[in-house]
Amino acid sequence: MLNIKQIIYYGDRLLWNQYLKQEYLTKITEVVTSNIEESPELEKIKMAAFNKQLDYNRGW
């Protein structure tokens, strides 16, 4: 069973950490995407991960 509150709490902090590696961003995205139907509140983390991916793609 997933603890959604912890995923949201720690996921948000990890996503905005400047040292987050691409491999961890990919893993976060996979976990959130695979569980978003049963937990719609993960949408915030999904969008934050998308924005972080855009930053990586821009080279920031």
Structure notes:
- By secondary structure, this protein is mainly alpha-helical.
- The chain has one domain (4-58).
- It has three helices and no strands.
- The chain has helices at residues 4-15, 22-35, 43-58.
- α1 (4-15) packs parallel to α3 (43-58) and α2 runs antiparallel to α3 (43-58).
- The longest helix is centred in the last third of the chain and has 16 residues, at 43-58.
- The termini are far apart.
- The mean pLDDT is 89.
End-to-end CA span: 35 Å
Percent of residues in beta strands? under 5%
Low-confidence stretches: none
Question: Secondary-structure element order, as H and E?
Answer: HHH
Coarse shape: globular
How big is the Rg? 11 Å
Number of beta-strand segments:
0
The largest pleated sheet is described as: none
Helix content: over 70%
The overall average pLDDT, rounded, is: 89
Count of discrete alpha- or pi-helical segments spanning 4 or more residues: 3
| Number of domains as seen in the coordinates | 1
- The computed structural class is mainly alpha
How do the strands and helices of this protein lay out in sequence?
Blueprint: H1 4-15, H2 22-35, H3 43-58
Short description:
This protein is an all-alpha fold and 60 residues long. The protein has helices at residues 4-15, 22-35, 43-58.
What are its keywords?
single chain; 60 residues; mainly alpha; 3 helices; 0% strand; globular
